[in-house]
Amino acid sequence: MDTALLVGLCVLAIWFWLDSARAREIATERARIECRRRGLLLLDDTVALRRLRLRATPQGLRFRRQFDFDFNDGTEARYRGSVTLLGAQVADFDLGGWRDLRVAPVSVAPGIEVPLPSLPKATPSADTSPSEYGGNVIPLRRRQ
User: Fold this and answer.
1) Domain membership flag for residue 107
2) Is the Cα torsion angle 116, 119, 121, 124 positive or negative in sign?
3) Is the backbone of residue 25 left (phi > 0), alpha (psi -120 to 50) or beta?
4) Average pLDDT for 10-36
5) In 3-state terms, what secondary structure has residue 75?
6) Which domain holds residue 8?
């Protein structure tokens, strides 16, 4: 009986390892596709398992795996996103704090000028008080 239990545990461990490898491939491919679709670069071309839980679904018990990945939008910033799988299905895809800040170019008709706001020109003197600058600016003075 001990041998049957040992063999059963080995089979279960091998099944879990293969299922986890398959889930990781699915998450990597989904992250790659979504990053490519948005013009982002999937860094390290891989995902990392962050959380593993067991969830009850109408189809039975399923593993809920959350994978994290890093990506870049062409700047020097590095962002973190996540892919959540429920079984072999993608349940959630999140790009974290990244927002697409690329704005469509605005065309202005020729001859139209857009006025730029101008700041008041103040010439600080050595005895200027902070209230003359709006109340929250303290002028820097040289040490004597």
Assistant:
1) no
2) negative
3) alpha
4) 94
5) coil
6) 2-94
